[in-house]
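Fresh eyes needed here. Kindly weigh in on this sequence plus structure tokens:
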Amino acid sequence: MTRFKCIPLFFLIVFTFFQPLFSQSQNSGLAQWEVLITRQIKYPIEALRARKEGVVVVSLGTDEKGNLGEINLEKKAAPYFDDQVLAAVESMRHLWSPNMLEDRKAGGTYFLVYNFIMIQEGTSGKQERIKSAINLIQKGKADKALKIADRLVNENPYDTKSLELRSQIHRQLGMEEEATTDLLAYQKLQIQVLNQIDIKVFGQVSTRQVTGTIPSRSF
């Protein structure tokens, strides 16, 4: 039997903070809490072997005082993604503080979104595809841009940038109902999503051993 081989890989965790109506980027308590969670999460070897990506969304229920209640999987990807994300969030439950909600309403349900992304030669990331869609719009090809936006939203319906882009494209195409639907979803997620965390792996599965490091985080 041929042994499975893969080259050394380097992991990069990128924290992308949204900027909703309130200034959540200044919430250092929430940011530190998320760092402690994300340090425990690695790109699963099983996913590397299968060349799988995934989006895991964890819901955080809060009571009327802002205390953390139920922690559940709002959106599942695969057990090797889901289990470690849920376990990591649960392990930091005791460090949650109601002031992490800032201007958000206590008693609501909020989301942490974890994007597991494989970066391979010849593939385009989200930012490149957004730029491509914008270029198509500028060339008067909004219908082709819409196809890109549809794929982005289908891949991750919790991504506000993709929803905002598709709303703008719908409006350019005169699809006002669809544009309004996307805009409302965008505005709701701006409040509900505490943060999106990209867990990226660079490389291809081809040599003997998988290793990983987390060299940096950018805020």
In short: The first strand starts at residue 10 and ends at 16. The chain has one domain: 10-204. The first helix runs from residue 28 to 38.
